[in-house]
Amino acid sequence: MNEDIFNLQIRKFLKKVGIQSQRQIEMSVREAIDSGRITGSETLHAKVQLTVDGVNIDHTIEDTIALE
Fold first, then answer.
1. Prediction pTM value
2. What is the distance between the terminal CA atoms of the chain, rounded to a whole angstrom?
3. Which of 3, 4, 52, 60 has an alpha carbon within 20 to 30 A of 45's alpha carbon?
């Protein structure tokens, strides 16, 4: 295994996950506020599940996102 390539590939994947996740959360929160489902003052529970086939990773990350 080439450690440099491996490290770069992980960073590339995590950057893609971060950017796409942030865009999706922002869009969904704005839509929920616009439709009246939330007021914009909530604290939202967020959860991400990471799976990687072939190496048996099944890891869940949970946190909250405060809107105010």
1. 0.88
2. 45
3. 52
